[in-house]
C-alpha cells in the first residue's frame, strides 16, 4: 500500500464530505411523519400522534436508568430536561420528521418519528 | 505503563467534563486514544491493551455510567485491534492514518453496542456522522500521538 500522503488526505477529505452529505440528506430530506414513538431499551414506551396535539404538554419517562422529560408540541417532540450526564438529548432540539431520532444513550431512550410509508396500510 | 494509564485516565475524565461540541450522541474528541496509540508503539500491543482496559474500567468508575462503559470498552477494543494489525504495515510517520482508521473502528464498534442496547435500527442514521467525526478526530489525535511518541523517545527512557 504505497500512496502519497497528499492522495490519502484527499481520499479522507472526500470520505468526510460524502458522510456529511449522506447525513444531511437523512436529516433534512427524510419523509415527514406524524407518529412519535418513545422507546426505552427497544421496548415501546409511548406512542403519540403529533397531528392531534393541540396544546403542548410534557411527560416524564422514569426508568431504572434515569429520567427524561419529554415535551410534546403540535407537530414536534423534544426532550426538555434530563438527568443524564451529557444532556445531548436535550441539545438535539425538536424532532419534526422521520430521519434522525433523538437518542439518550445513558438512559437507553430513543424518540423516533415513524415515516409515512409505515402507516400506508391504515 | 502505569504513567500512560494514569495519563489516559486523566484525559478521559477531563474530556467527560467538557460539554459536547456537537449535539450528536457518540461524537467526541477521543483524546484518551492518544495514550492507547502511544502505548502500542512505546510499549507493546499487549501492554497497550492493558492500558486501554484499565482506562476503560477506571474511567467508568470515575466519570461514567455502566452504559458508557460498554461503549468505550467495545469501541476501544476494536480501535486497539486495528492498531495492532496496522502497526507493522504502516510506516511510523503515518501514525495519523492508523489513528484515523482506529477512530472510525471505535465509532463503528460504539454504534454496534448502541444498536444492541436500544434495539432500534433508526439510530443507524447516525453512522455517517460518526464515521466523518472519526476521520477528523482521528487525524488530530494521531498527530498528537506522533509528537508524543517522538518526544518520549528523545528522553531515552
Write the layout of secondary structure elements.
The complex is a heterodimer of chains A (122) and B (157).
Chain A: H1 5-29, E1 35-40, E2 43-49, E3 57-62, E4 67-73, E5 76-82, H2 88-91, E6 102-104, E7 109-114
Antiparallel strand pairs in A: 1-2, 1-7, 3-4, 4-5, 6-7
Chain B: H1 2-17, H2 33-42, H3 45-63, H4 66-86, H5 95-118, H6 127-154
Helix pairs in contact in B: 1-2, 1-3, 2-3, 2-4, 2-6, 3-4, 4-5, 5-6
Descriptive account of the structure:
The complex is a heterodimer of chains A (122) and B (157). Chain A contains two helices and seven strands. With 122 residues, chain A is an alpha+beta fold. Chain A folds into two domains: 1-30; 31-119, N-utilization substance G protein NusG, insert domain (mini-chromosome maintenance (MCM) complex, domain 2), CATH 2.60.320.10. The termini of chain A are far apart. The radius of gyration of chain A is 18 Å and the shape is elongated. Chain B is mostly helical and 157 residues long. Chain B has a single domain (2-154), classed as Orthogonal Bundle (Arp2/3 complex 21 kDa subunit ARPC3). Chain B is built from six helices and no strands. Chain B is globular, with a radius of gyration of 15 Å. The mean pLDDT of chain B is 81. The A-B interface holds A 1, 5, 8, 12, 15-16, 18-20, 22-23, 26-27, 39, 41-42, 65, 85-89, 91-93, 99-101, 103-106, 108-110, 112 and B 16, 19-20, 23-26, 64-65, 67-68, 71, 89-90, 94, 97, 100, 114, 117-120, 122-123, 125-126, 128-129, 131-132, 135-136, 139.
